[in-house]
Records
---
Amino acid sequence: MNKLELVSALKNSTGVSKTDAARVVQIFFDSMADALSEGERVEIRGLCSFFVKEYKSYVGRNPKTGEPVEIPPKRLPFFKCGKELKERVDY
Amino acid sequence: MALTKSDIVDMVCELGFTKKESVRVVEELIEIIKQNLQDGDDVLISGFGKFCVKEKTPRRGRNPATGSDLMLRSRRVVTFKCSGKLRDKINGKLPVKSGSSNETKN
């Protein structure tokens, strides 16, 4: 399922207009992206939570050539599956 | 301070929905995502990331507390793959700590 399909599914199940459904989906993901870019945590009960993990610089290797490369420090979002979702997805 | 569902509901309210309606629409959105993943379907949000359902094969594990062997059954889990756009956004906005950034303000 992609974003467009999510928008039509939301439109069909709630009866809001397609424009509004698209806006809600946009707000949902934009607000999470904004929070994470500020280094803030995100917690959506039953679905998932995210926090930003800081990685220090380290010497990695180019897997193709085996050459050592310096990896600069970076931040990555860390995803944690919510309890309800975890139980529902598992058999 | 973490971003929560109620913050998102407040933002949806600003579109002109009532509070009750906003809660309903946001809850419904979350339910659709969950139902999709439950059905084993990935959810791809361009510019944000991809929620994938992964099948895990059974493997031998160990109870870290007692050290006893145990068998982990096959299971299904949700993973998240961050999009390049989101990664750039997270790395671009805040100056990286540790003083290695070239423009440290003193």
Note: The first strand of chain A starts at residue 42 and ends at 44.
---
Amino acid sequence: MSAANGSYYLPSPSPWPAITSAGLFTLALGFILFMNSIAAGPWLMLVGAAVIVYMMIRWFGQVIDESEGGLYNKQVDLSFRWGMGWFIFSEVMFFAAFFGALFYVRQWAVPWLGDTELLWPGYEAVWPTAGPKGPMPISPDTLAPAGSFSPMGAWGIPAINTAILLTSGATVTWAHWGLLKDNRAQLITGLFLTVALGITFLSLQAYEYVHAYTQLGLTFKTGIFGATFFILTGFHGLHVTIGTIMLITVLIRSLKGHFSADHHFGFEAVAWYWHFVDVVWLGLFIFVYWL
Amino acid sequence: MASATAHHDDHPSGIMRWLTTTNHKDIGTLYLWFALIMFFVGGAMSLIIRTELWQPGLQFVNPDFFNQMTTVHALVMVFGVVMPAFTGFANWQIPLMIGAPDMALPRLNNWSFWLLPPAATLLMISLFVPGGGPAAGWTLYAPLSTSGSPGMGMDFTILSVHLLGMSSILGSINIIATILNMRAPGMNLLKMPMFVWSWLITAFLLLAAIPVLAGAVTMLLTDRHFGTTFFNAAGGGDPVLFQHIFWFFGHPEVYILILPAFGVVSQIIPTFARKPLFGYVSMVYATATIAFLSFIVWAHHMYTVGMPLAGNMFFMFATMLIAIPTGVKVFNWVATMWRGSMTFETPMLFAVGTVFTFTMGGLTGIMLSLAPVDTQYHDTYFVVAHFHYTIFGGSVLALMGAAYYWMPKWTGHMYNETLGKWHFWLTVIGFNLTFFPQHFLGLAGMQRRVPDYGLQFVEFNQWSTVGAFLLGISQILLLVVVIKCIKGGKKATTQVWEGAEGLEWTVPSPAPYHTFATPPKIR
């Protein structure tokens, strides 16, 4: 390895990228077959997912070993920082597509539908709506009879979830301060609290989803309101899940004694990611639940 | 440097070398071969299109298959040829040009490439599943791509686009990290070669645009299979929403295809004019300006869908603004050549050819930017001619110029100049014969994406088909030149070209497996 003299670390040939691609190909193929009701689909998806999980354990494991082995100098560390920062930017743009869709339908598409009296007579184009052919909206958080749906109000569980995520942003920063001061107990306590808050958030979201599907008549198929609601909160929930897994990984690494006050980008990357899902949630709370 | 490279030269042999490589030169080579193979695949599809259009009526393929060919031809050429080829050049050249030992994140680099073959496989499988491949056009407009495409071919296409997008995003992250963090000491940003600058800006375009495409095709997928109504008015959605999101990606995408070409031209012309690039700093600012403007012009693809007048006006004027920075670039290239001691080796021929044909495409672009005029031109062969002048006449000609320019550095041999010149002239003649008549066809009202046409269009279409076959067949010359150049030929010197400047011309030809293990000093 060329890192011996402190120069930029160049990894040896690695099988993991190609294995990852094979796993992703299998997962994608399985997903296509699954969507088209072909029996082999779910099995292929399972195989693809297993390959990807195995790869992540081995590939990331190798990176962790290299990091703890002192192979990454300051310049390598900076490459990781640029990489993670711009990766998060690309994630922001991914969410921007769905926020853009929400703004567009609320500002233009739905009002225009109300203007076409000939095409959709009697349609009242007011947000929340499931469209001219969808169920009728009723007031938030009420039991919805057949043919209607009830949007989710902002000031119940969503407000609590906002408090939970904001608190978790604070606890992960507190953990970071602990790491910088070499206070391992503070690091581990902070991370543990963050993970616990993340899991609480996810549990409450799951409860809300069940509530929406069983009582509010609000599903992914509930017109444009249901579609934007579930695609935004769903992808956010997926990102919180990924973030929680990353936090758990960092917590385990902390328990093993990894990271030092001046070399802990693995921790910081996870913290950045966690703040990112936090900020996305604030957008969701304001534009999906509240306004 | 020799001692630093010797012990690190070991790599697995055979297929494992290419599957596991973390070397920027190996990965660059993989990208370029992938792009060349897909170039022939996508080219064969275009010849099917041109064969059907030899005469009016339906004789060779059925209309649905014709639409599949136009769709997959476009997707292959955009995502399988131009983007991977430029990424291949970025991989080979950026570390050499900024004095870096490799790309910043070598394993990620390998993964970026190896996402492409699975993605291409999914796209190709789509042509063979029940219902056939995607026939909605590369723009995948809803409802053509939702209720209009019940077959699973569209699902294969969507998942293929997801993998292609992942590859581009990861590749861009790597390029940004490399350029910002791996430059040799002393090479500040405004000392970077223009090719590096153009890729830095392109990478930002990719990072901002590709995730939006991923969002758009995800919504297509949920509309197709999970009962959502994003693009269905009955549920409160809007098909025009898809067009907005798609073109928010799509317009930056076309600059993603052309900006690296501008970079290549800005490298080649100074070398063969034996003068430094005229207006280097203005080139940088012009490129950045084009990139910024590309995000606020998307709806000029949608003048005819029915937007509020204010929308049409805004997008029209914003689009016309792009002519200014683009004009800056063209005039700078011309000024670079002015009173230069020019020679016309094959790379220079391709670079000058690029400036000519791209400028033509740029001028027809200004015509199309006018909303009232576009109402007439929309979805005619005029548009087809316009974007082939920019993407083939711009990006692909520049890619070929880049290949001739840097091939001696990679292989250590000079290519065959006679064959190279034949390749250039046959390519530009075939290209212009194919696409120049299409301007007239479009102005006269011939619709694109239709396998049949009126009798009055026969003659121009036959010229176009003859040109397409000439263009297609002459690309075999490119393959011959590349293989001959790899196998042997006159030894290339370190500098290769008399007027060449830059770090890549200070390493031996062929470039050793590892270069700049210790960073060079920049004066």
Note: The radius of gyration of chain B is 23 Å.
